[in-house]
From TrEMBL:
Entry-linked InterPro entries: ArsF-like (IPR047698), Thioredoxin-like_sf (IPR036249)
Organism ancestry: Bacteria, Pseudomonadati, Bacteroidota, Bacteroidia, Bacteroidales
Signal peptide: 1-22
Protein name listed in UniProt: Thioredoxin
Species of the source: Candidatus Tidjanibacter faecipullorum
Keywords: Signal
Keyword Signal carried by entry: yes
Length: 146
C-alpha cells in the first residue's frame, strides 16, 4: 500500500509540472546555419517549485557567465510553453511531454543535444549552486569544442 501511495504521489508531481503535449514552432524558429549553443527549457501551464527553480537558475547562470554570448547570439536561451498548440512540433522533435531542459549545439547546420532534465530536477531547487556550476561547465565545454 505504501509503495502504491508513493507511486501515485510521484505521478501527481509529474502532472503538476505540466505533463502536456503541445509546443510552439515560432518560439524556437531560428537560422540553423548559425553556429550557436541553445538552452531549451520546456514547461507546461502549471509548474512546481522545482520547475520554476530550473528556469530561474538557468537564467541566472547564463546571465552571469555568458552575458556577451547571449548578446551576440552564440548562446541562446529559449523558454517553451508546451501547453500551447503552436509548440507541438518542437515538443515532438525532442520527445518532451513535461518540464525538460536541453542543451543543443548547432554547428554547420547540424544539431547535437544533451537532455539535462534528470540533472536539473535533481539539483536546481535543492542544490542551485551545483546545478549552475554543472550547467556552466557543460556550456563552456561545448563552446571550447568549436
Amino acid at each position: 500500500m505504501r509503495k502504491a501511495l508513493l507511486f501515485l504521489t510521484f505521478c501527481m508531481s509529474l502532472l503538476a509540472c505540466g505533463n502536456v503535449y503541445a509546443q510552439n514552432n515560432k518560439a524556437v524558429a531560428a537560422d540553423n546555419s548559425k553556429n550557436r549553443i541553445e538552452i531549451l527549457y520546456f514547461h507546461g501551464r502549471q509548474r512546481c517549485a522545482t520547475c520554476l527553480a530550473i528556469e530561474k537558475n538557468t537564467k541566472e547562470a547564463l546571465e552571469t557567465q555568458f552575458a556577451n554570448e547571449l548578446k551576440n547570439g552564440t548562446v541562446v536561451f529559449k523558454t517553451i510553453d508546451i501547453s500551447k498548440a503552436a509548440n507541438k512540433k518542437i515538443a515532438e522533435k525532442y520527445e518532451v511531454t513535461w518540464s525538460s531542459l536541453f542543451i543543443c549545439k548547432w554547428e554547420n547546420g547540424k544539431e547535437s543535444y544533451e537532455n539535462l532534465t534528470e540533472y536539473a530536477f535533481a539539483n536546481a531547487r535543492t542544490a542551485p549552486d551545483t546545478f549552475k556550476t554543472g550547467l556552466i561547465e557543460r556550456i563552456k565545454k561545448l563552446i571550447d569544442a568549436e
